[in-house]
Amino acid sequence: MVASFSNGLSGAEPRAGRRNLKGDMREQAILECAYEALRKEPMRTISIDRLAKGAGLSRSSFYFYFESKWQVLSALLSSVTDDVFIASSMIFDRPEGISPEAAIEHAVSEVVDVWERHGHVLREVGDAAAAEPALQAQWDRILGRFIDAAAAAIERDRSAGVALDGPPARALAAALMWMGERNLGLMTMRSANAIPVDEIVETTTTVWLRTVFGLEYRGGSARS
C-alpha cells in the first residue's frame, strides 16, 4: 500500500475552498492509482481517464484536483523525496554522540530502502523531466535542498574541527549528492553499471568518510 501523499503539489498552497476531508480522500485516491500504475508503465501512456476511473471519479472531477497528469507526478515526487530527505537526516543533522561513520552508514541504508520502495516514481521523473520543464525545475529545486543541507553539515563539522578543510562546502556537497543520485537512478533502471545493492552502504560511506572527514570505514564498528 502506498503511503499517504498529503504534502500538495510542488510545495504549492492548495487552491482556496477546494480542500475538505472528502476532497483529500479523492486526491489521495488519484495519487495512489498513479503510484501503482507507474510500476508497470510510464506516465505518458497512462490516460487521465484511467487515473480518474481508478480513483472512482469522473474525468471532470479529476481536474478539480489536478490540472494534468504531470501535476500528479509532481505531487508524487514531492512526497517521495520528502521520505528520502527524512531518511538522509543523520547526514544533515548528526545527533550528539553518534560518529560520522555510524550516521552516514545509517542514512545510506535508510535512503536505499526508501529508494527501493519508490524507485519506480523517481525513474519516471527522470524519464519525463526532459520533456516537462516544470518537472525538471522541481527536481533541480529538490536536489538543491539536499545539497544545501549537506553543505551546511560540512561547514558545521569544519567549524568544529571534525571535518577536513577542502573545496567549498557546497561544491563538495553537490559532488557527493550527485554521485549518490546517479547511482540510485542506475540502480532503479537495473543498470549493470550501478553499484550492487549489497555494496552501496560500504562504498558510499567510504567515499563520504574519506572525502569529508579523512577517516577510513571500519565496517559499522563505530557507534560513538
From TrEMBL:
Matches recorded under InterPro entries: EthR_C (IPR049397), Homeodomain-like_sf (IPR009057), HTH-type_TetR-like_transc_reg (IPR050109), HTH_TetR (IPR001647), Tet_transcr_reg_TetR-rel_C_sf (IPR036271)
DNA-binding region: 47-66
Protein name per Swiss-Prot or TrEMBL: AcrR family transcriptional regulator
Entry-linked PROSITE patterns: HTH_TETR_2
Coiled coil segments of this chain: none
HTH tetR-type domain boundaries: 24-84
Single GO MF annotation: transcription cis-regulatory region binding
Domain of life per record: Bacteria
Lineage of the organism: Bacteria, Bacillati, Actinomycetota, Actinomycetes, Propionibacteriales
Keywords for this protein: DNA-binding
